[in-house]
Amino acid sequence: MKVVASYSIKGGVGKTTTAVNLAWLAHRAGISTLLLDLDPQGASSFYLRHDNKGSLQSKQWLTGKTDLQRHVLSTDYEWLDLVAAHDSFRDLDIELAALDSNLLRQLIRSLKKKYQLIVVDCPPTVNHLSAQIFRAAHRILVPVQPTTLSERTFAQLNARLTELGVKDSKLLPFFSMVEARKRLHREVMHAFSAQYPATLQAQIPFSAEIERMGLERAPLGTFGGKRAPARAYEALWRLVLTEARIPVI
């Protein structure tokens, strides 16, 4: 089983849309996949047509009073399950601070017999929760908007991993919300790729089609599969499949 986290310190850069679309593409490839929505806003859960907050409360989960599998929800897609967000996830950081630093990894990997891939949609925070996610994930996908501030934020993330003793080789940055006609975007992407050679060469365009996911409440491939954003996520998925060494049966 592989664990891939979709994470960014910045909000609004495509973290959740990446988690949902990659999980759906994994399902399409016949890979048994669980999307774990740890963001209390519950956007991933909403996209997968689960209005209500999940039943899994953070204290139940972290104290071992419940089996995580009991809170897994089915989605409209075979091979793709969901653990929906819960309001109590807002307190995960506080609760994790007093617990084993590897607890989240142990809890996630308790599902290894059922799933080949777990995709984690992470909240845009830097705290004990994100530190545990970094340790639990085999790869950390980081959408980077091609701006100077996003470049700076990624450098801060690199520094944070160093502090935690987590290998920066886990990080897989890629460009999101790209407007190729903008000279600044082209310049930032060129400089960033030179500085960070591990940058995945897949560019997710800035597009109203991606915003439509909220209206359709569905991954891009279900309603816009032939359009540029969906093709861009397919290209990203192929790279992640290789980089994360996701087992395909």
Automatic annotation (TrEMBL):
Q: From which lineage does this chain's organism come?
A: Bacteria, Pseudomonadati, Pseudomonadota, Gammaproteobacteria, Oceanospirillales
Which Gene3D superfamilies does this UniProt record tie to the protein?
Answer: P-loop containing nucleotide triphosphate hydrolases (3.40.50.300)
Give the protein's recorded name. Answer: ParA family protein
Which CDD domains did the record assign?
Answer: ParAB_family
Q: Which Pfam families match?
A: AAA_31
Superkingdom, natural source: Bacteria
All copies of the AAA domain together span: 1-163
